[in-house]
Amino acid sequence: MTRADGPVTPPVVLTVAGSDSGGGAGIQADLKTIEACGGFGTSAITSVTAQNTTGVQGQHLLPIAEIEAQIEAVIEDFDVAAVKTGMLATSEVIELVADHAAVLPNLVVDPVMVAASGDRLLAAEAEDAYESLIAEATVVTPNADEAAVLTGRDVDDPAAAEQAGRDLVEMGADSALVKGGHVPGDTVVDTLVTEDEVTTFRHDRIDTEATHGSGCTLSSAIATQLAHGDDLSAAVGSGIDLLASAVRYNVDVGEGPGAVHHLVRTRDDAARHPTSEAVERVVSALVDADVSALVPERGMTVAGTTPYAETPDAVAAVEGRITRTMDGVRPNRGVRFGASTTVARALLAAREHDPSLRFAIDCRLTDAVEDALASLGGAIASYDPEERPDGASADAIAWGTGRAVETSDGTPAAVIGREGVGVGGRVTLLAADADDLVSRVETVHEAVKDGA
Ligand SMILES: Cc1ncc(COP(=O)(O)O)c(N)n1
């Protein structure tokens, strides 16, 4: 028997950039990101850098004819749907790309000048040459420092970013995304300027130096989304969201600051099935142990997040909770992503301060349960509801859980919420994995079941 082939045709994306032997930035980051976003990645290498997480040790520029040959080899054969440029190194390379612009659709220009390590990746005299390429760009994506070089304008707040964006559009770019990562402040504001409108994208700043490869990853994600047919603002928005996760869950490799996690979303999607299976295993264990004594009046929620969860739809939980019946505890329905709101949000709030926490279960709060928590061997965290800001009252449990984890002395095994004791008072058991959560519940249950 021969099997029929089943070819797929992902949109082809071309990156024209430098090689980073350290794997975090450049061509390596671009290809990983393009594939993660569902494109087929092709490349034209401009320069081979000897580089790692501590800096750039060497650079070898390829002959201009070799760079041109790579671009032409790709363009002549593939139906290229989008192109991104990264490290172009010299004015000759910038001009080469500008000369080919007519056959380079959806051109995303990341005007790479200096690496995160501080090493120069563009000859100083080549900065002016960018003007010719910017004029051809669908979108140009400078950080604040690059925008300042390109426009001669200090970019130190969102108003200046918008002005710099307008300057770049005036230079002929269809649009400019002026990135706010290098502008100080707790919120990162990225500003997208087109001829007709200005859109700002805001994210809480993530406290890490491991941003190596962030510009490459963002521009590659935007190019790939444009290749899929997204409009500009959707492509930019989804690229920024991907990068926020890629920076938060950065890869801790090498002696220097790590790199962004190019495959973060791919890995998270792949973890959905094992995550819901893990929650199902917890549910079975609770049924087997008949943990009636721990089940709150309203029912018990068991929830688990994917490893890089950001939103409640990445939290698997028992739909309709686990409740007490005449013969033991029973889940009302199956495990589904997005089934829980309250415990899901509490777990996500906990992860803002301790991303190792992935599983949670809410139990009755009684004196006996509280006494039993001491035997869990982890910190027991709590919070003062009086400290809750007015704005957080709609999500009081999430706020309290986040607050408790933030102020906990080490990763907590449980969070006690004393609000409305007897009515809403609860204890949320937490764990990094499902087996630990089961053993925590069993430990508490063993201690209280005879008195219940
Ligand atoms: C080959 C190459 N291209 C681009 C960058 C910029 O990336 P970053 O600013 O994150 O170091 C880099 N370091 N190396």
Automatic annotation (TrEMBL):
Keywords: ATP-binding, Kinase, Nucleotide-binding, Transferase. One of its GO terms (biological process) is thiamine biosynthetic process. Residues 279-442 form the Thiamine-phosphate synthase ThiN domain. It holds the Pfam family Phos_pyr_kin. SUPFAM superfamilies: AraD/HMP-PK domain-like, Ribokinase-like. It comes from the Archaea. GO terms for cellular component: cytosol. This is Phosphomethylpyrimidine kinase. It comes from Haloarcula rubripromontorii.
